[in-house]
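[Discussion] Sanity-checking designs against the backbone

I'm trying to build intuition for which residues belong where. Below is a structure token string of 437 positions. I'd appreciate it if someone posts a full sequence so I can compare it with mine line by line.
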């Protein structure tokens, strides 16, 4: 089949590659001039020198099996492009958790429990509360009522363990605060990461996000005569008797296709469907679900700290009013220039200038950096970085219309067990391609 894949983010790239592997002819459309979607590189300037940043500091984990497998298929060696570390949530003041680097044959549950027991900065009562909770989650097969929030799930924990471990874990995994985040999804993430060998390992990119997968996918597709059409915004899709018609800003006439995969953001997919009266009626339920998703922003504040080097490539930060960042990454240890720090503010809101000011103050207070040594480089805000992963959330399904298997949607927002992650996007893309046969 000739398949239009609309959107060249990680989901669209995965879908196009899998379609080609299955003998189909994918045509990848992307409105911007660069593939990667919400996980891509961008150009910046540091003291007159060109600098390559990311539009957000992403973390992969060992449980991202589909993403890591796709990278290898595209010729990207995860061992070369990702720094693998045991799960570490260390704070600058020494408090934190670090799982031990034990052999793969050691049961993951034992590794997790040992990490809890060896955590620093917590009392015996703090650790006992988490051990009791973790054992209870395991006995319940990591299931809980659909309407529970993470805060409800963890109400038996001590405040220190809640604030020092669960809060940063939840906001990093779901980009939603514990008071609003789905406990069901949180438990699924814990099960698939902490309780499988190497699943919880942190995989920190040593190169920019575009090189990590999107650029490799485009090269792979081009070698198989499936070049991506960058800078071609799809303006309309329409159902015809033999298939589909796709109109773009780069062509004068609609182009025929046998199937369409909507790999663009949920609101853009809903817009394309609503623009055609027949599709708007047939896909009414899907459009309503897509439009009902709420979104959370992620801000990344890049700061050049002269002479600075963190004890770990990633540190957790004590986030509170006036100290908004939950994590800081030392890009100098991750293939970037020395002293470049990336402060990540999940579930971000408010004015950029105020955010930048607060992060700079947080860097001085929590990292002990001098104001005279700090230089703001760039602040990147993805306003719709992820959907808000709340209890009972109804996400749009893969198949847009029940009676038509040739119109599919993929992205980290479609129905599935995971929050909005790179792994969720890749899995959705692969699933859409396999659904077409």
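Best answer:
Here's mine. Compare freely.
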């Amino acid at each position: 089949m000739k398949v239009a894949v609309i959107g060249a983010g990680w989901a669209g790239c995965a879908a196009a590659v899998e379609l080609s592997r299955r003998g189909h002819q994918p045509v990848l459309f992307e409105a911007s001039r660069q593939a990667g979607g919400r996980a891509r590189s961008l150009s910046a300037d540091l003291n007159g020198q060109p600098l390559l940043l990311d539009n957000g500091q992403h973390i992969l984990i060992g449980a991202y099996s589909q993403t890591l497998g796709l990278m290898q298929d595209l010729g990207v060696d995860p061992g070369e492009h990702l720094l693998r570390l045991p799960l570490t949530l260390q704070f600058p003041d020494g408090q934190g958790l670090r799982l031990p680097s034990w052999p793969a044959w050691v049961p993951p549950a034992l590794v997790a429990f040992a990490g809890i027991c060896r955590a620093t900065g917590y009392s015996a009562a703090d650790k006992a509360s988490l051990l009791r909770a973790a054992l209870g989650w395991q006995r319940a097969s990591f299931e809980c009522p659909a309407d529970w929030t993470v805060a409800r799930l963890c109400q038996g924990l001590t405040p220190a363990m809640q604030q020092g471990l669960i809060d940063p874990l939840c906001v990093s995994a779901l980009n939603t605060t514990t008071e609003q985040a789905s406990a069901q999804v949180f438990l699924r993430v814990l099960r698939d990461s902490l309780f499988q060998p190497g699943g919880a390992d942190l995989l920190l990119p040593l190169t920019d996000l575009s090189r990590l997968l999107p650029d490799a996918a485009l090269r792979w597709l081009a070698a198989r005569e499936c070049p991506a059409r960058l800078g071609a915004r799809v303006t309309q899709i329409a159902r015809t008797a033999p298939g589909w018609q796709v109109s773009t800003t780069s062509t004068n006439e609609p182009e025929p296709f046998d199937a369409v995969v909507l790999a663009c953001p949920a609101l853009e997919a809903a817009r394309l469907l609503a623009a055609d009266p027949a599709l708007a009626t047939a896909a009414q339920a899907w459009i309503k679900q897509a439009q009902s998703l709420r979104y959370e922003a992620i801000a990344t504040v890049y700061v050049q700290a002269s002479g600075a080097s963190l004890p770990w490539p990633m540190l957790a930060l004590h986030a509170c009013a006036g100290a908004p960042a939950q994590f800081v990454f030392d890009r100098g240890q991750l293939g970037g220039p020395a002293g470049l720090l990336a402060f990540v503010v999940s579930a971000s809101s408010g004015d950029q200038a105020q955010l930048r000011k607060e992060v700079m103050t947080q860097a001085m207070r929590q990292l002990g950096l001098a104001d005279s040594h700090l230089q703001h480089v760039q602040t990147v805000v993805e306003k719709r970085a992820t959907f808000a992963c709340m209890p009972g959330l109804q996400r749009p399904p893969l198949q847009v219309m029940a009676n038509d298997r040739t119109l599919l949607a993929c992205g980290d927002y479609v129905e599935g067990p995971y929050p909005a992650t790179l792994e969720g996007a890749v899995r959705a893309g692969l699933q859409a391609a396999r659904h077409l046969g």
